[in-house]
Amino acid sequence: MAEHTFRSRLCLLLLLLPCAALADPAVTTRQVFYRVDGDTATDIWADIESKTPVKHDGRWHVAYTKWNVNWRFWWLENTDGCEITRINTTLDVVYTLPKLTHISSLPDALSRQWNDYYTALYEHERGHKDIGVKAAIEIEEIISAMAPKATCPQLEQAANDLARNVIQKYSRIEKDYDRRTNHGLNTGVVFPQKNAGK
User: Fold this and answer.
1) Residue 136 and residue 113: Cα distance in Å, rounded?
2) Which pLDDT tens digit goes with each residue over 44-87?
3) CA distance 196 to 183
4) Is the sign of the CA dihedral 54, 56, 62, 67 positive or negative?
5) How far is CA 29 from CA 22, 66, 96, in A?
6) Regarding beta strands 64-78 and 81-100, do their DSSP bridges make them parallel or antiparallel, or are they unpaired?
């Protein structure tokens, strides 16, 4: 499951050439772990169920990715109105994941199962991050392509509305991603004989 929010930052810059410049969004990631324990697959799974901080719509989940797109744009006011001159976005990503505290002491077979599971789980969560990256890129593209507006307040409002619409679009895409992958089950996010999901 992933959740995202938006925050707009605006800056008025009057002396730029009227040519919107795009850059790749800057992405920062952070991992937050909750510790789990157990000597068997059953025990590990029970500990995940009891300790996971990730709950949504009455269901618990193993992992969680939250991304937040911030956008900032500059404009130029001239005799033709007000137009975008530059736009950039940043993406902040926080992964919440389980951390098995004593994996080195587990039997080799169980250790391999956990590593395979965790690799698939993390890959699924990275898929959520990638959706956030696409949202940030689309916000840059759509705002940079805006036609001039009669006034700068009109331009500001229109740009922010476009960005918020993009966020809503990618929220729907994320939900579809989880439906298609069955929260990762269809792509290998399965701990021994358990419907792990995320």
Assistant:
1) 35
2) 999 999 999 998 777 889 999 999 999 999 999 998 899 999 99
3) 9
4) negative
5) 21, 10, 11
6) antiparallel
Residues 187, 180: Cα–Cα separation, whole Å = 10
Q: Find residue 77's DSSP bridge partners.
A: 82
**Distance (Å, whole) CA 161 – CA 145:** 14
- Model confidence at 23, pLDDT cuts 50, 70, 90, reads low
Rg (CA), the chain: 21
Residue 79 three-state SS: coil
Q: Cα–Cα distance between 176 and 145 in angstroms, integer?
A: 28
Q: How far apart are CA 87 and CA 152, in angstroms?
A: 15
Residue 150, token pair as written in the block: 């009669």
Distances (CA, A) of 22 to 96, 135, 144: 31, 14, 7
Distance (Å, whole) CA 111 – CA 48: 16
Residue 104 amino acid letter: S
DSSP string, 48-66: HHHH---EETTEE-S-EEE
Q: What is the pLDDT of residues 112-125, one digit of tens each?
A: 999 999 999 999 99
The answer to whether the predicted template modeling score (pTM) of the entire model surpasses 0.90 is no
Report the Cα–Cα distance between both ends of the chain, in Å, rounded.
Answer: 7
